[in-house]
């Protein structure tokens, strides 16, 4: 979920314009203070369109999350049958992306608020479950290909992918709720783990 | 932050009785729906005591978090100059404790809600920063002693502790917001990391 995606700079259609307005309003107000009205304030077209398409704030936010997941799927580098080690480095970068500067603080904070909704709301929980599954599937695929290429050791791709995904969730939560200095140290150790426990000797 | 601590079963004094009532009410209502009134409903003594001691719900919750941190500090096994490998296994258990059954779902959910408050509230953020620092200091101390004993490889204790602490935050967030089946796989990989990247050969 990076910034700088095309729908932010230049929305193609009404839905992308709504998604852009939601992205901006969510970063600005956070989940709790967000209203459809405030999303409308960031929207150049008629606000009645928003009320026509969505029954509630959560309804719109769930559609926004689906849209972001599709963007993520489309933006992931196409996996080729070579260079799984470069690809795993990209994944490490992505894993720590919430600890870096690729995503604004405000947006990272809003995403954690939405995730925390999943503690009490099945629709949000179900979304983040699918989103996490997608991340694990992608990482496991890379690990599996790397093993076949002899780049990685004969590890369990599913277990490895699970730790990557958990680390991703950890970096995101840490960054917005606590001391984010720790992310640099954690990343150094995670890279050691990849070098010494994942790459073939 | 385990269940079964003495203040829950048998509060020693008024403060412990307040902390017990807060623990129970927080698990029952979550952060958003919690009120001092609802904490009072779990409190056997006069509710006016609560209003006398605390200005607001957040004031009480921050005192509760401090109390829990002190409990955690007191409950941690006393570190002896032998057996750092057993101790690191205890820490792995603690790291994945939120993925296990030691803490109730309701309480784990409430703790994440409080942590997420740290995204927008400096008092909560400052608390979780200190709490995370405490966890890292404890892990780093164990790693350092293990290196001196020749049990662990010559790793960087601070970086290693950072990854442990990040994983702890990840397990807690994952458990309450998404698919928690993944925790078993992530734990298996994390234990492989400890065996192959941390223990001396």
UniProtKB/TrEMBL annotation, chains A, B:
Q: Which UniProt keywords apply?
A: DNA-binding, Repressor, Transcription, Transcription regulation
Which residue numbers delimit the HTH tetR-type domain?
12-72
| Domain of life, source organism | Archaea
Location of the DNA-binding region in this protein: 35-54
Signal peptide positions (record): none
State one molecular function term (GO). Answer: DNA binding
Q: Which Pfam families match?
A: TetR_C_6, TetR_N
Please verify whether the record's keywords include Repressor.
Answer: yes
Question: Carries keyword Transcription?
Answer: yes
InterPro entries cross-referenced by the UniProt entry: BetI_C, Homeodomain-like_sf, HTH-type_TetR-like_transc_reg, HTH_TetR, Tet_transcr_reg_TetR-rel_C_sf
Write down what this protein is called: TetR family transcriptional regulator
Q: What organism does the UniProt record list as the source?
A: Halovivax asiaticus JCM 14624
């Amino acid at each position: 979920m990076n910034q700088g995606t095309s729908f932010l700079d230049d929305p193609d259609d009404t839905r992308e314009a709504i998604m852009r307005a939601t992205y901006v309003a969510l970063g600005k107000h956070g989940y709790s203070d967000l209203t459809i009205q405030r999303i409308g304030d960031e929207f150049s077209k008629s606000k009645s369109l928003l009320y026509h398409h969505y029954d509630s704030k959560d309804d719109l936010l769930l559609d926004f999350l689906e849209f972001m997941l599709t963007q993520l799927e489309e933006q992931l580098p196409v996996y080729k049958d070579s260079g799984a080690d470069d690809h795993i480095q990209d994944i490490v970068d992505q894993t720590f992306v919430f600890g870096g500067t690729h995503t604004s603080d405000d947006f990272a904070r809003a995403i954690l608020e939405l995730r925390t909704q999943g503690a009490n709301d099945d629709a949000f929980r179900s979304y983040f479950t699918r989103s996490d599954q997608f991340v694990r599937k992608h990482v496991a695929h890379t690990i599996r290909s790397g093993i076949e290429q002899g780049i990685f050791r004969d590890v369990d791709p599913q277990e490895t992918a699970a730790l990557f995904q958990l680390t991703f969730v950890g970096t995101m939560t840490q960054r917005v709720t606590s001391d984010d200095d720790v992310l640099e140290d954690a990343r150094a150790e995670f890279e050691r783990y990849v070098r010494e426990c994942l790459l073939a000797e």
